[in-house]
Every structure is written in structure tokens, then in C-alpha cells.
Amino acid sequence: MKKLLFIILSFFTITLLSYGNAYAYSDPPSITGKSVVVMDANTGAVVYGKNENKPYPPASTTKLMTVLLTLENCDLDEVVTVGEFPPTIEGSKIYIDVGEKMTVEEMLYSVIMVSANDCAAALAEHISGSIEEFAILMNQRAKELGCKNTNFVNPHGLYDDKHRTTAYDLALMEKELLNHEKYIEISKTKSTFLQPTNIFKEKRPLWNDNRLLHDAYECYYPDAIAGKTGYTDESRHSFVASACKGDNKFIIAILFDENKAYYDETPKLFDWAFKNFSTEKAFSKGEEIGTYETTNGSIIPLLADKDILYTKDNSSKEKPSIVINKDTLSNKFFNKGESITTVAVNYNSQSYSSEVLSGSYYEEEVLPVVGNLVTTEDNTISYKNLFMIIGGIVLGIILLILAIIYIIKKRRLAKKRKKLFSSYNSYKNKY
């Protein structure tokens, strides 16, 4: 009986530990794509994942990184002169020509709305000088964002055996992009026209590929704010989308969807996420999260460096735990507003960290005594006073030494004078 009970308990323990998502939510809708992730765009918490860290060819969702680097490295009114290579790119394009001049903003509209490969290549050359150098920049930025399974070799996503990323990494890129208002503005634009250029004398019409934005489609999702589609024969279909309701914002990334089911499935997955999860604020920026008592009894307020958010499971009554790292609080001086340690808000196996600021100025007080350390307020002296005392002692010793030297020299001189005077008297008496 004991053996049977042990086996049953072991089974449940292993089951709980192996369950990839710690949240106690209702089951998500079925997703056809081989890789999918649902991420809280405010916190980065993954609320659902399926093969989210397995690399796949991303097709045109690659352009999320191209757009991010463009927004970070260019002014919107910069003029891009098209080189010889971009017009030769295959796939989706707006047919730019060698020597054609367009602004960075116009090219961003083309890349985001109609997935223009030629414009993606032109932006890459404008920023880095070549596709190869731009790919290096793409991979460096991916690592900075926390992407661990990404390797880009081009800015557009046309198939290459070495060109890979994951649903999770794409969600990280989208999360960073959502900090750029221009990205959201362009992504929500349903249609527009590009003005004539020095070569192309007519307006170019642009129609946004993201069907979630268009109410003519059954998959229309009014809360959608951004999205990027992708497809090649080898990569199959891919899709990254974002939606926002109030303070809650979620990202969905899907890779290797062989049936192009993402338009039907994404709205259902968004509804599931908004129903089951919400972004909650543990502390506001500048709010006291705790205190630190120093060795002499001083109380230092500990303040949040920023808004500390966490992703709440709406079906759970669990409260987040707050862990302040007080092991690092060994400095003798704290300036008000100085970052002095960190705090972790732990909830459902997720950890959200932030810097912690000192809420007041502090200078530790000690008493330099031989024997037991004395730290009471009645018999303590500050470091500044201590330094003044030590300085005074040193100065006194120096003055004492100088005085002794002066006395010794004075006595020696007196002896010499006495000896000389004695010799003179002897000589005078003799003669």
C-alpha cells in the first residue's frame, strides 16, 4: 500500500514539474503551426508556448529585426539611394530601381505593409553598407534582446539553410518594436500611397497584408495593433501579431504553419489570453517597497526604480512574493536616489526584477575604540569627524617632531657658544 501511494505521489509530482506553463488557466485553443508562443508584451512573461524555442526558417517575419534596426539607426526623413543589388531581389517588392531616392519612412511603410524585400535590402545597405554587414548587426541586436536561438543571414527572410529563429525570439523582437510609436502607426495603417520619386513618376499604392486590421475579413480583430506575415515554400507560413485591450497587451508568434490557419486561430488565441491573464502592477516607480535597517539602527527607505509589473493568472488567488537582495547593502555611504540593490517579484514561476534606489542619504557612523565595537547614537562619531581627528593627531605629531628638532638644534648651538666663550676667557687670562 505504501509503495502504491509512493508511485501515485511521484507521478503527480513529475507531472506538475514537467508542465511547461505554471499558470492554472483554461486550455488554449488548438494551433496548427509547429511553433507558437503567447507573450505578455508588458512583462515578457510567456503564458503559452509550443516548441517556442525550436528554430525554424522565419520567412518575412525576419523583417521585424530589419524594421527595429532602421528605427534605431535612422531618421525618418533620411534619403535612401537605391543601389544595384536591391532591385534584383525576388519575392514581394514594390519594384524600386537603381538610383531611385526614397525616404526611410517611405521604405518602412513598404516593408511593414507589403513586405517589400527590395526595400528591406535597400535599408540594410543604407545602414551597414552591405547585406553581410547588416546581418552581423541583426545578430548582435538579437543577442542584446535576449534571443538565444537566432541566426540571420539576410534582412528580408528569403530562404537560406542558415537563416533561423524561434517563436520566442520573434516575440522578443516584437516586444521591443512596440516601444516605437512609429512602428505601431505604420502597422495599423490599412492603406496608403507612396509619392512619386525621381524615377517612378506615379504614386505607388500600398495595402496592408495583415488581415486582422480589415473588417472585410472574418478574422478581423479590432484590438490588433501590429502584425507581420511571412511565407516561402521551404519556411511555410509564419505570423507575428500584437493586440491591446486597456492596459493589457499580448504578442503571438507562429512559425511553420503548413495550412495558413493562423488567421483563423490568432483571434481565438488573443481572446483566450485576454480572458485568462492580465498585467498587474506590484509597485509604481518611486514607491517604497521596503526598508533597510543599518548597523546603527538607521532606517533607509528602499524605492522602486521603475514600475514593476507582473502577469497575473486571473483564475489564481496567489499573491506575488517580494524578495529584496539585502546581501549587497554593505556600502558605508548611500546617496539619495542611488541604485543600491535589486528586488525580485516572484509569481507563478516567473521572476520580474528591478533596481532599488535609496530613499535617503546615509553615512554609517562608527566609534574607533580598542575592544568591543560601540555603535550607539550616544557615543558614535561620523567618518568625517573621524578623519578630522586623525588629521589633527597626525598634524600634532608632526608639530611635536618639529619642536623636538628645534629644541635639539637650539641646545647644540648653546653648547657651541658656551665652549667658544670658555676658550676665549682662557686665552684672555693667559695673556
Structural descriptors:
Beta-lactamase; 9 helices; elongated; 5-stranded antiparallel β-sheet; alpha+beta; 431 residues
3D architecture notes:
The chain is α+β, with helices and mostly antiparallel strands. It folds into three domains: about 250 residues, DD-peptidase/beta-lactamase superfamily (Beta-lactamase, 3-Layer(aba) Sandwich), CATH 3.40.710; about 80 residues, no CATH class; about 55 residues, no CATH class. About 35% of the residues lie in helices and about 25% in strands. The strands form seven sheets. It has a five-stranded antiparallel β-sheet, with helices on both faces. A five-stranded antiparallel β-sheet has the order 11-12-17-16-14, with no helix packed on it. The radius of gyration is 36 Å and the shape is elongated. It starts with a helix and ends with a helix.
Write the layout of secondary structure elements.
Blueprint: H1 2-18, E1 35-40, E2 46-50, H2 63-73, E3 79-81, E4 101-103, H3 104-114, H4 117-128, H5 131-145, H6 167-177, H7 181-187, E5 191-194, E6 204-207, E7 224-232, E8 236-245, E9 248-257, H8 262-276, E10 277-283, E11 288-293, E12 299-304, E13 308-313, E14 321-324, E15 333-334, E16 339-347, E17 350-358, E18 362-363, E19 365-366, E20 381-382, H9 383-430
Antiparallel strand pairs: 1-2, 1-9, 3-4, 5-6, 7-8, 8-9, 10-13, 11-12, 12-17, 14-16, 15-18, 16-17, 19-20
Helix pairs in contact: 2-3, 2-4, 2-6, 3-4, 4-5
